[in-house]
Amino acid sequence: MQLEELLRLPVMVDLETSNRAFLLGRTKGFSLAKAGDYPCQVMRVGRTYRVSRAALLRALDIDPNASGAGSSHPTPPCENDPHHQR
């Protein structure tokens, strides 16, 4: 799942969508949810599992408010930055 797709998810998603974000297969994802070992908080609603977008993004260490959210390549410090140490 691409970052842009993750950021456009609705407030609550089904477990299969969450499984895709975590790169989990259907069986493994449902097994983890049932055992209480899913990578983020899961809510049981009737006979289905739901995951909040906020919990999913937190578990993936993505800040939806930061520019370049989830960038795996940190921006090098600017030479003119007073906090930059030489």
Number of strands: 3
Amino- and carboxy-terminal Cα gap = 38 Å
Count of alpha/pi helices: 4
Low-confidence sequence ranges: 69-86
The major sheet is characterized as: 3 strands, antiparallel
Helix content: 25-40%
> How would you classify the helix and strand content by structural class?
alpha+beta
Q: Topology as H/E string?
A: HEHHEEH
Give a verbal description of the structure.
The protein is of the alpha+beta class and 86 residues long. 34% of the residues lie in helices and 13% in strands. It has a 3-stranded antiparallel beta sheet with strand order 1-3-2. The chain starts with a helix and ends in a 27-residue tail after the last helix.
What are the key terms here?
single chain, 86 residues, alpha+beta, three-stranded antiparallel sheet, 34% helix, 13% strand
Quick structural overview:
The protein has 86 residues and is of the alpha+beta class. It is 34% helix and 13% strand.
Layout of helices and strands:
Elements: H1 3-7, E1 12-14, H2 15-21, H3 26-35, E2 43-45, E3 48-52, H4 53-59
Antiparallel strand pairs: 1-3, 2-3
